[in-house]
Hints:
Oligomer: single chain
Largest sheet: none
Amino acid sequence: MKRNFSTTVATVVTIIVLIGFAALAPEPFQALLNTIKLNVIGNLGFIFTYPAFVISVAFVLLMLTPLGNLRFGKGAPEFSTLSWLGMLFATGMGIGLVTWGVLEPRYHVEAGNSTDQALLYAFNHWGLLAWAGYLAIGALFAHAMYNLNIAKPAETLLGGGFLSKVNLVSLVVSTVIGLSLTFSYAAEPLQQSLAQFLGVDVSATLIIIVLTGFAIASSASGLNRGIKWLSNYNTLFALVLLFSVFLLTSPGEILSTFTRLLPDYLWNYPAMATETGQGDPERKAWLADWLYAFEASWYGWFIFTGVFIARISKGRTLRQLVMGVMLMPSLLSCLWFTVFGLGGLEMEAQDVFALMASLDQYGVLSFILTLNILLFFVTSSDSAGLVCEMLTVERSRAFWIVAMASLAIVINWLDGDIFKVILTLISVAAIPVAFGLFTVGVAFLLRLRQEHMSRQPAETLAR
Length: 463
C-alpha cells in the first residue's frame, strides 16, 4: 500500500485541479479542450484507431491458432458464461448503447447522410474498434495476473519507477473522467423519467448524488453479489427493450437492413477504421468530432474495463475472450444500433425516452428503460471504483466513485452539449493514456520474451 500512496496523492491533486479549472473558468476550459481536439486529435487521431484495428485483426488470427487454447489461470471459471457475458456487456458499454442508440444515427441523418451510412458510422464507432481495446487489456492483464503471477501489471511491467507512477496517474485520471460521462448519461434520462412518471423536476446534481449512493452501496455488497446480480438484470432488461423495439416498429426492415449492412461493415472495416481525412480539412474535423473522439473515449475506458475483464475471466481461454469480449459484443452493438436507430427514425423520436413513449402509452417500456439505465450506471461506476482501488490503495473505492460524481456535477454546470464536452475531455485525457498503454504493451511483450528465454535452458537441461 505504501508504494501506491504517492501515486494516489498525485492522482487526487490532478483531479482536484481538473474539477477546479472546469468550475472556476468554464469558458477557457472548453476553449482549451476544443483547441487540443482540433489541433492534436484532428491530426494525430490515428494513434487511437490504427492500433485498435491491428489488435482486432491479430486477435481473430490468434484465436484460430493453438494459442487460442491458452487458459488464464487454473481451474474452472469463477462465473457462469451467462453471468460473465452479462458483466462484460453491462460494464463495457451498456449505458452508452442505451443513450446513443437513437441519438447517433439521428445526428448523422440530420447532417445529410443516408440511413445506411449513418448506421455504418455507428457500427464503426461502437463495434470492433471499441471492443478490441477491451480485449487487448483484458487478455494482457489476465495473462500477467494468472499465468505470470504479476499482482499489479500496470506498475510492475514498467518497473515501479517514475515512469510507472506517471502512467498509473494517467490511467486512474482517465478512468475517473470516463466514468463522469456515465453519470451524465444516467442523469439526463432519469430527469426525464421522474418528470414523466411523477411530475417532479429534479436537478441533475441531486440525481448524481443519489446515484453515487447507489454505486457505493453496490460496492459494499461485493463482486459476487452487487455487480454480478445487477449485470444479470441489466442484460435481461436490455434484451426486453431490444426485442420490444424490434417487434413494435418494422421487424422486416430491421432484419433486412441488418443482414445487408453487416457484410458491408466487415468489408469496409479496414478502410473506415484507418481513415485519416488526409487533404480534406472538413473531413479531418468530422473525424475529430466522431471517430477519433469515440475511439479516444474508449481509451479512457480501456484500462478500467480491461482490468475488470481480467478480474472476472480467471479460468477462461484466449479463444473465449476473443469471442466473448470482442466478436459477440460487436455483433450485438451493430444489431442494437440497427434496431434503435431505425426505430427512432421511423417514430421520429429525438431520444430513447421519446422512442419508448411513442411505442408504449402505458409507460411500461419507459419504466424498464429507467431501471436499465440505473442498473447500467451502478455496475459501471462500481466496477470502475473497483479498478481504481486495484490501481491505487486499498479501501478507496467509495472515494473514487465520489470523485467521478464530483467531476460529472461540475461538467453538468457547463453550457452546451454535455456529452460532447465530456467526450472532448476524454479525448484529450486519452492522449497520455494511449502512450501509457502502448508502453505497458511493449513491456508485456518483452516480459513474455524474457519468460520464454528463461524456460529454454531449463527445457534443454531436461532433455
